[in-house]
Amino acid sequence: MTIIAMNVAFYLYGGATGMVAWQNRFGLAPIYGLNEPWRWVTSGFVHVSVLHIGINMLMLYQFGRQLEGILGWKRFVTLYGVSLLGGSLAIVLLAPSNSLHVGASGAIFGLFAAYGVLLYSRKLPWQSLAATAGIWLVAGFFLPGISWEGHVGGAITGAVAMVVILAMNKAKRHS
Description:
This protein is an all-alpha fold. The chain is built from eight helices and no strands. The longest helix has 26 residues, at 148-173.
């Protein structure tokens, strides 16, 4: 998947140029959110460690591969991007103004939620997915350094985006 390759390339380049400077330059801090809007996107491609990017890319691969197969690459990339922006919006609105946020997890929580909506709409078991996402979401409230704001914003945006996608598909079938 291209999004995984982009994340890994961004991580490797950032590590080669100085990780802390990279995070400060491209991470999202609410104080910069309106004046430096590129951070709403770039922050989703910055990771702080091998473990951080590893977990995010594993989750992206697990859910992204399935969703991309169902939606097609254009809708999948749109869903990912909208979820990333929704997570960033929540960070700008809810996080302390001087906090710095990085990582793809807001977008990935959007994929979790979208996949849950898809399973529910097809009357397929969705509870185990909800439990997994719920555990990660709750952990985000208690573990330091995890952007619960990005997770919540991404999840809400991903769920709403999937509802819209399903409604568009239904309207297309009935026209």
